[in-house]
Fold these 3 entries.
Entry 1:
Amino acid sequence: MVDFPAPTFDEIRRAAERIAPYATRTPVLRSRSLNAHAGADIHFKCENFQRIGAFKFRGACNAVFALDDADAARGVATHSSGNHAAALALAAQLRGIPAQVVMPEDTVRVKVESVRRLGAQVEFCEPTNAARVASLAALVARTGAVEVHPYAHPQVIAGQGTASLELIDEIGRIDALVAPISGGGLLAGNALAARALCPTVEIFGAEPEGADDALRSFACGQLQGNARVDTICDGLRADLGARNFAILRACGAQILGVPDCETLAAMRLIFERLKIVVEPSAAITLAAVLRHPRHFAGKRVGLVLSGGNVDLDRMFREFAR
């Protein structure tokens, strides 16, 4: 993939203007009981209420509508375990262009169905990052479609950063920002936006212990990969991208590891206290705050609930266990 500079704050602002006719301005929720439980003033940016049920629509919409007419006519393609796939499918549908998606064969059923319902063609591959990359490269070569990478595309990163623009516009200053980390597009875009608006804000990525490449990468200062992934957070299984690693290191980000059992407990707390549906990949942010309280005690915290696309049958089984 071609290298590119990190998106500027002006590009994030332009992304907000570009997606405004299509994206939802999602609510910010608070809970007195969760604040007391965490010892912090938490503001939940609810991207589970975004179109397709996840923040991914921001970046995909920005990337699709930033294309000139000639490139748009070629259609778009990506690889994704679900949310970015659905987001790109919807953005392409809104612009009236074709979309094609490579998905791992173990992708959650509800997410595959969502992508197909939105009109995209789906091809399956083995559930490894190498297989996803190779399958997408072959698809792009065969069809001539424009690749819209799920977390490394500059317009995708800029689009994701619009969530923090909205959050800080609504509630004002924050001391810390917490978002899930996988490929890093969400955290990188929001780190750039939050740092521009609140220069002293601390940036934290919440990561499953069963997919801890970001934690290891930050510990040693060199990008690491996952030889094996074992986590219920199906949206957080991709390896951290090199460009986002560089952006996040420049922003002084810290990575907080979380075991799946604590993510599920946080998911239940969100169900019970906020009365909303979130997926494990979103609940991990609250789990990170509860597991690492020394970073957040007494602080004003912006917390991104990244999505709400849940396989309910699977979640009920997990809760029963």
Entry 2:
Amino acid sequence: MTKPSLAHTVEKIGGTSMSRTAELLDTVLVGARTGDALYNRILVVSAYAGITDALLEHKRSGEPGVYALFANGEGGWSWGDALTAVADRMSAINQTIFSDDGARQTADRFARERIEGVRSCLLDLSRLCSFGHFQLEQHLLTVREMLSSLGEAQSAFNTTLLLNQRGVKARLIDLTGWRESGQHTLDDAIARAFADVDITAELPIVTGYAQCSEELMGTYDRGYSEVTLSRVSVVTGAREAIIHKEFHLSSADPRLVGTDVTRVIGETSYDVADQLSNMGMEAIHPRAAKSLRQAGIPLRVKNAFEPDHDGTVIRSDLPASVPQVEIVTGLKSVFAFEFHDQDMVGVKGYDARILEALKRHKVWIISKTSNANTITHFLKGSMTAIEQVETELSREFPSADIALRKVSLVSAIGRNIADPAILIRAIGALADAGIRPLGVHDLIRKVDLQVIVDPADFEATLSALHKGLVQDWAGPQRQRLHAVA
């Protein structure tokens, strides 16, 4: 390793990677670094895999965690049992991480203090809200934030302790606001925490959750750790932000199209990162990306377990040298919400009323199309919420025909896909694979090409478009450039 410059990096480690602590020691945390090379870095850590799900609710299945049980209130004291189960799970994690009994006991004491402190707060809040003057709903966001902080506090404390055992001058930067009386903005909290930190001689380990006046959970929910990464990068003047995942940012999901044909993207723009977020494949939360983009700080996405690979760098000033598709991704389960009304022609207000209903029921809009008398929104959300929207609009517009069907949306994304051959080849690739698209959206800005298909054709569509627009595109592209030269 070469000696680092004074410009530092801010690096976030995801929860799944954090759970592979022994491997992380040989890659991101220490690896081949010695001496000064260990420093000029700031590490932002997520909770260990599954801990936040247990504290809040399972992100995918919706299975209730401590927060959901407490907020529901109908389960009595079941949330207390769930919190005890989290404590046991944290202790089991500590058992696997620390071979030294003294260190493990120190880690257990830290986790137990936090767990029991939260338990005491929730008991007091329950008693308080048993009086009619106090409503539990007014405090639920605070409860959600407090519970969420437990996971990041444990992983940050453990990582600091583990590195200190290895002779690294690691320092815990606890942004969770534990037992603090005041409240600050996120930037102020970060600035105060780093006021006396010497990045050239210390390795700060920062909690991915930060307690602040902006209430991160209320705005970003599970994306808060990436917001912490971005603001720490901006406030401390980082040279580069890095996100360590358990996989590379690749041209498609290797599990769906094959590991032998996908490739690491290597470089792209924040514009492409926004399109990926819209498709549910977040390289980084869009609001976090905004902070880095505005500050001119590049973001690098790396595989945490391939430290010698440069990964993919994302910058705002990185135009494509030639038109090309960089990644093919999609959503298998999307609702096509089609609103048709013959009376719509020449009348304003229909679109606004539909959007108001979708916003009110917190339905995520992925894409939309419209013509003279039909507006179709492609939506992600619960069937219950979407059906409530349908009921409201049917009542408000009795002459309208509203159709709801499940579809898949596959998107070919790139910084510049303006070459007309891309659309032609996409249609040809689908035809060769025997896929009949339900719709194709080729927008003027030429950063994404969206194909709507039946869910049964989702994986085949991904593979067909990846083959036609990524795997087989390089040869013709090289020939075209050679002819121009």
Entry 3:
Amino acid sequence: MKLKSILAALIALFTVSGCNSQTVKNTGNMKNSIVIFFSHAGDNYSVGNIEVGNTKIVADYISELTGAAQYEIVTHKYDGMAYNPLIQLAKEEANKGELPPYEGSAPDLSKYDTVFIGGPVWWGTYPQVMFTLFKDINLDGKTVYPFTTHEGSGLANCVSDVKKAFPKANVQKGFSIYGHEVRTEKAKVEKWIKGL
């Protein structure tokens, strides 16, 4: 009788494991990873007024698929702004090289080997508030994966700007996804993560 119970338990275990074969698990080189991102909720191009920003959704997918921790860059400077005034402000910040403040303090990255950096593309690169944080962190020797959400810009200058900000980091090829796709195209993020 014990043998039958053991066999039944093993069959159940293999059946459950087989059901999860499509799920991407935390790979060996992703154990000590973190997702650093800025995401804009509210009025967004193409998707309207959203409660959760497009980049936040992608960051959540990455954490789910890799087990990565998260650090969200938060600023209240853009809260409640309609899309057109927001992009005008973002353009002015980029042209002037402004570095808007972010909430809280920079994350301690000493225990992370892999860093995902993501944000929307505003005027050809990440929002300026991300560059404020970049001045406060050190990614020397870390593997860095830039990613963006956009509506036609792709990666724009984000990868080259990350390389410029962190010349001693191992910056990898980036990933971009349309903002209007993030809620329905999780498979694109999964494919990217599987290929790392």
